[in-house]
Each structure stands twice: as structure tokens, then as C-alpha cells.
Amino acid sequence: MFFLARLFRRGLKALCLVLAAVAPALGQPASEPGLVVIRVSGADAMFGFSSLTPPLNLHLASLGGMAESGPITLPAGEYRIGIDDASGMGMSVRAVDCSDDNSQGDRASGSAELVLDPGELLICTFSVMSAPERAAALIESLVPARGDLLLSSLPPSEDRIERLKGAVSVAASPQLFMNALPGIVAGRPIPVAASLGAFERILGNEQRNVWDVWMRGTFALANEQGAAGRYGVAAMGVDRVVGEDLLIGGFVEADTMIRDWSDASALVRGGWMAGGYATVRVLDNVYADLMGSGGSSAGITQAQGIEGRFAADTWLMTAALLGQWTSGRWTFSPQARFSYFDERVAPYLDGAGNLVFGQELGRGRLAIGPGVSYRLTTQNNVVINAGLRLDTSATVLSRDSVDGFEGLRGRLEGTVEIALPEGMRWKTTLGYGGIGTDNRLFNASGTLTVPLR
């Protein structure tokens, strides 16, 4: 009996220990399930959805551009759902958005990673677009980049100011100054920034070139809005100095642009523009610079496997106020510039006979920033001028935006110019734009300027 009583006490003790261990789990209620709603918007069609979770295998027929599943009850946890390929219907996924921060949508794959919490109502929306809508979006996305590229492909305002000032190399020897003394005594005017060319003009040996012709080529690489782009621009112009305070000129340019997207969409376009510019001295060290141009372009879109051809009219204008102060070999040149780029795309039919509506797109951008340069003259009177400029810009006007304002972005530009005594100049420019954003634009250009005597 004693043995049985002892065995009973030990068994009872072990049972109590087991009950103590499992009691918290037994007392905790089961996890509350959540609800999932799947929506599709943007086009009328039958859309299929696939998932390893059977209740998420759906077929939704949209009407009036919208379809929605009923609430789907699922245990709290993680799930994945993807929309079936709709390229055969000429459609693609534009965006995938979920109603909480934990769940993530991926446009490229057309899928969503769902994180469902207990008691949560999670709504995920798959936005789709048709081939015509996609083609219109491709054209629209190119407008800011094309405007920036055309502006960076023309000689900058600083070059026109230098032309107006007639600045050339600084004399390396005082002999020329001594030779110029008779002209000084005779009362001939001397520029404040006395240069070799200025002394030569005093001596009557050289006249400032009234006419100049320039040629400029630019190549650029960009990564913007998920697209890789390659751009090229060739421009040529001629200008004339009118008096001491005015420079006027005209130019023509031709450009080509290619962009490729990760969803196999692509856009190729080429165009031309012609216009004029004027630089005016408003104060001793302050200048106003104006430029305007217009032209046209044509292009080919590839959207959802459907090709389309479009045509557009374009115009561009800029107005800038610049300062330029010199201290020894250093020149400081802050500037404020407003530019507006406008493009009107005519409606057209794509390769499948779908109508792509016309668009009128415009961007107005304000840029402010400092610039600095250093000038060095060799013994052979070759002038080497190295400069650096940093601009901060923002879009302040936009035809397709309610407020028109877009976030700040920076652009860094470096230049090296070599000027020969005969007046010929070569300038290399390297620029890096999109600082502070996910978009990147790198451009390199060269400008050849030849005086016409």
C-alpha cells in the first residue's frame, strides 16, 4: 500500500507540472482572422489572379473601369498574389497599392506581398492601363528630360556674357602695357578687366570680332522613372555684338532620344528647333539673358507590343538674370533663371488601330545657383578657363499638375575652356543632374567657337 500511495503522489505531481506548463496556452484565445479585398481599376476586361492560397485565386470582370472581390477571410499571416499577364489584351500594370504599410506591391511583376494582421481589413488595388494610355504616358515622361537636355545643349549664358565683354587673355608681360601708353595718353578708353586683346585694340592692331559662329554637340545618359535613356543633340549658331551692351544671335539644333523601360516599352524620337537669343548689360556687372525657340519632332512608341507613330510641336523659352564679378583670376557668377518648355502632341492611331489622345504638356522651372571660374594664361597667350556651377531648381508651373510644384533637385556642372590667341575657342562641359532625387542625368558636350572677321 505504501508503494502505491507513493506512486500516486508522484503521478499527481507530474500531472500538475504539465497542467501548469500548458495552462497559459489553453487560456489564450485563437488568433482572430483578417479580411482581404482585391480590386482592379483602369480598364474593362476579365482579369485573373493567382496565388498559392486557394481563396486568392480569383477572376474579376471590371465594368466602368472597376472590379472588386468580396471580403476574403484568411488567418493572420503573409500571402502573395499576382495578376495574370494581360499583355495579350494590350494592357499592363500601372501600379499596385495596398491599404497598409506592411504590405508591398510591385508594378514590374504585377504582384503584392500581403501581411495580414488579426482583425485587419486589407485592400489591395491593381491599376492597369491600356496600350494607348501607356503610349501617352511614355510621351509625357520624356517632356522634363527633353527640356533639360535642350537647355544644357546650348551655350550657357556665361559664354554670351564673355562675348559681350570681349574678354580674352590677360597679358603676361608688361611690355604690351608700355607699348599701349601712347594710346592711354591719347585718352582712348580702357576696359576695367584689361586684357591682351584690349591693349591690342588700343594699339590699333586688333578689332573685336563682331561676328562669331559656334557649334556644339552633346551626349547624355539618363536613368529616370525606371527608364534608361540615351540622348544626343547637335546645335549651331551665329551671334553679333551690337554696341557695348547688346549681343544678339540665332541657332538651329537637331536632337534624338531613345528610352527603354523594364516592361519592354520603348520610345524613339527625333526633332529640331530654331530660335534666337539676346544678352543685355543692365548694370556694370549685371546682365539679362533671353532665349526663345520653336520646332517640331516625330517619334515611335512601343507599348504592350503595339507600335505607334506620333508628331509634336515644341517651343522653349528662358529668361535669366546673371551677375559677374572678377577678383584677380577668379570670376564669381550667380544666376537666377526661369525656363518654360511646352509640347503639343497630336492625336494618332497606333498599330492596332487604337486612338491615342493628343496632349499639351508644359513645365516651368526656376533655377538659382552660384558659379565660379578660374582663368589662367600661358606664355603663348593661350587662355585656360575652368569653371564650376551648382544650380538648385524646382518645377513651379505644370499643365498636368494641380499645384505645379515639384521637389527640389540639384545640378552640378564643370567646364574647361581653351581659347587661342586667334580667337578660336573649345569648351568641354560635364554635367550631373537629378541630385537629391531618384532620377539621374549625365551629359557631356563640346563647343567650338570660331570668330568671323
Task: Give a description of the structure.
This protein has 453 residues and is of the alpha+beta class. It folds into 2 domains: 34-119; 132-449, Lipocalin, CATH 2.40.128. The protein has helices at residues 2-27, 131-153, 157-165, 175-185, 196-202, and strands spanning 34-41, 46-50, 58-61, 66-68, 72-74, 77-83, 91-98, 104-106, 111-116, 121-130, 211-224, 227-242, 246-261, 266-283, 286-303, 306-323, 325-327, 330-332, 335-345, 348-349, 355-356, 359-369, 371-377, 383-398, 409-419, 425-435, 440-452. The strands form 4 sheets. Strands 11-12-13-14-15-16-19-22-24-25-26-27 form a 12-stranded antiparallel barrel. Strands 1, 4, 5, 7 and 10 form a 5-stranded mixed β-sheet that branches. Helix 4 (175-185) crosses helix 5.
Task: Give keywords.
single chain, 453 residues, alpha+beta, Lipocalin, 2 domains, 12-stranded antiparallel beta barrel, 5-stranded mixed β-sheet, 27 strands, 17% helix
CA-based shape: elongated
- In the sheet with the most strands, the strands line up as 11-12-13-14-15-16-19-22-24-25-26-27
According to DSSP, the number of beta strands is 27
What is the tally of helical segments? 5
The average pLDDT value, as a whole number, equals 80
Low-confidence sequence ranges: 22-28, 167-174, 183-206, 401-405
Strand content: over 45%
Helix content: 10-25%
User: Would you give the CATH topology of the largest domain?
Assistant: Lipocalin
